[in-house]
Design a protein that fits this description.
globular; disordered N terminus; two-stranded antiparallel sheet; 9% strand; five-stranded mixed sheet; 9 strands; alpha/beta
Length: 339
């Protein structure tokens, strides 16, 4: 064997010890190429995911639209918006003007949530207040846009502030919140706590919150009252929430539970055009932003109309067109090119 190896040429000897592999330069080039490919692919993946979340959001609004149609068919009017922010829904008070709870509470039986709506039925005193508190702490998957936040419990305004505790519920440190709000028209009336007792709710003089919308204090808006047409009037839309406070209670329009009556938490208006969540960052911004529609979807805000159809509208929609779509009977013709 030793003699045979001695016969090999020097070149052949070197060939037997060479091993295939990457040089450092080649490895760095491969890594750089992979980095470039990832940087090109990731935006497309993120865009695809956001498109999926946006579609899910539209489907949630569609559910609310279908429920609204069910409510309208059964009750002969669109869901009322309760007695004010210190009242949660009560299953023993029916529908319409005598129901202290807000629009979402009124829709629960038409969202296959009858058991939640009826929690506390027939009870009184502390037992009923505790049952109603359990309602305030029940999130619903279809009430939170997946582009913004999950359907979990979020901090309520500090329970030490008794002025924010509902009259008919026990205190709750955390409550369910919504990313969707009912159309209150073109102007917002300052929030009202409402009457302090059930008895007062039957006789109390409530402030006027009818600014052309479809749901307000003690409202009973029938389809005939939507004179501009169900297909031309907002029912429910995405609400603006400051992006730096979506999981806190420091948003004035996102501090309380989603089952309360008329309040900027549950009602939004077309006083201004919709606002993209991403625009304000950590700025407190204009206080009126807590009363307008808005969206976590870049460039668009989604609405379900009174006929149940869902449409994405540009956040750059013409203000006059936006206000015309929010008003049920202003009689204004809307140029589709404006939205």
């Amino acid at each position: 064997m030793r003699g045979f190896m001695g016969c090999l040429s020097p070149n052949m000897k070197r060939a037997t010890v060479n091993r295939a592999g990457f040089t450092l330069v080649e490895l760095l080039v491969v890594i750089a190429i992979i980095g470039i490919l990832v940087s090109m692919i990731m935006p497309a993946i993120q865009s695809s995911r956001e498109a999926g979340r946006r579609t899910t959001c539209a489907n949630y609004l569609k559910q609310l639209g279908v429920a609204t149609q069910g409510h309208l068919s059964a009750q002969k009017h669109l869901p009322s918006n309760g007695w004010g922010y210190r009242w949660v829904g009560d299953p023993d008070y029916g529908f319409g003007s005598r129901q202290p709870g807000g629009w979402l509470y009124n829709l629960l039986p038409y969202l296959e949530e009858t058991a939640l709506h009826d929690k506390g039925r027939g009870l009184a005193g502390t037992a009923k207040a505790q049952a109603i508190m359990q309602v305030t702490q029940t999130p619903l998957s279809f009430m939170n846009c997946p582009s913004r936040r999950p359907a979990v419990l979020y901090p309520h305004r500090p329970s030490t502030l008794d002025s924010n505790v509902p009259f008919n519920s026990q205190k709750a440190a955390e409550v369910a919140k919504a990313d969707y709000a009912v159309n209150g028209g073109t102007l917002y009336t300052n929030s009202t706590a409402g009457p302090s007792t059930y008895a007062a709710g039957k006789t109390s003089n409530f402030p006027n919150t009818d600014h052309g919308g479809v749901s307000f204090l003690r409202s009973e808006v029938r389809d005939a009252h939507v004179r501009d047409g169900l297909s031309k009037t907002y029912m429910i839309g995405e609400k603006y929430v400051r992006m730096d406070a979506a999981d806190t209670w420091s948003n004035a329009g996102d501090a309380q539970c989603m089952y309360i009556g008329y309040d900027q938490d549950t009602t939004r208006v077309a006083e201004k055009t919709p606002l993209d969540d991403r625009l304000e960052g950590t700025s407190l911004g204009d206080a009126t932003n807590e009363q307008i529609f808005g969206s976590p979807h870049t460039g668009i805000c989604q609405f379900v109309f009174c006929d149940g159809t869902v449409r994405p509208l540009s956040i750059d929609i013409d203000l006059a067109a936006h206000q015309a779509l929010a008003h049920r009977e202003d009689g204004k013709e809307i140029d589709p090119s404006k939205y």
